[in-house]
Prior knowledge:
The protein has about 425 residues and is mainly alpha-helical. The chain is about 80% helix and about 0% strand. It has 16 helices and no strands. About 50% of the residues are buried.
Amino acid sequence: xxxxxxxxxxxxxxxxxxxxPPVLLTKKSTHARDVHILSFSFLLIFLAFGAAQNLESxxxxxxGLGTTSLGIVYSSxxxxxxxxxxxxxxxxxxxxxxxxxxGYWLFIAVHLIKQTWYIMYPISLYLGFASSIIWxxxxxxxxxxxxxxxxxxxxxxxxxxxxxxxxxxxxFACRQEGTPGxxxxxxxxxxxxxTLGIILMCFLNSKDTVEKEYQDSSRSFSASLISFxxxxxxxxxxxxxxxxxxxxxxxxLQQAFVWAEFTKYVVTPxxxxxxxxxxxxxxxxxxxxxxxxxxxxxxxxxxxxxxVSGGALLQAVVFVxxxxxxxxxxxxxxxxxxxxxxxxxxxxxxxQISALLGMFFKRDTEGAFAQLKVWQSGAIAVIFFISPCxxxxxxxxxxxxAVLIAYGAFVYLFLHGEEAVxxxxx
Length: 426
């Protein structure tokens, strides 16, 4: 097993030892600019997709076409994420991001025609593939931009990664909104928003981290296969990754719980369908604010551990609250409070997991973010498939158990991670 970075290396700033040549002066602002563009592009794209996803269970009701399509999306997302890392490296950063948008564009466009299973299911399968490409590259691109920005400006690397992730996830969280009725005009607006986001993405600078071994087209098939398998499987041999996986999976469970359970079984019975948009707006607002604040506070493993502890505690409070008041309809203030706490927790987990992966896995950023999407999207798919089969009370028990396991694994990583890693080295 390869040697791993120490905790001290994570905490200290990364300094640029030599005097910066004049050409770097023209690049110092481009990394921050690219993060602004990437963040706004994702906002426009997922503002459209998020609203379409919220409509899916009510628009495509024929034999559960909508919910089944979403289940296929997240199942294929999880499977394709296993192989996304080498594909992203082969394509290059900018091409990977643009290819990834194509699945979302097609998914929106198909709603302008008659939906049938033989159209929706293949497109949902392709969207899972495209999602794996764009999300693995998003994490890699953002981390690369942060490292280069820190190096060029003599900044603390961990804090810069936190700041960049905070900005991105703050913008991304702003996609939450209430959705009006289903019309062809609505999907046309979605498609225009998504197209604008794709066009904006074309102005990004390339930040390829491809090494020579991936650029050599003359490599033998066996060498390519070995490299491919190493990229897909190697992160699982890192003890730190094994302790982060429960937290990754929990974030997927939590997001799907909000989409599929909280809005349907908690908000709607208390406030009606008209209250769902307001509850999601509260969730998105606190998610966005907390993403920005948590990103600004991130500087290393110690701050990450404190922030994750707070996020886990707040979400556990919501689940206990739901169990205690399971048989009673919650009032407006209770709904707003629960939505806010869930949003705060989501903002913390998104920024801190991304920062953690960026700090720990400097040698294989693509592989690390591929693992994030494998476990996260797999967990989302599980919720979509089992949601109709179990009660809200059972689901809440599952969620409470999951957050405790995820937090317990994270605490062990923080307290004993270095000893566990050292003992496992070859």
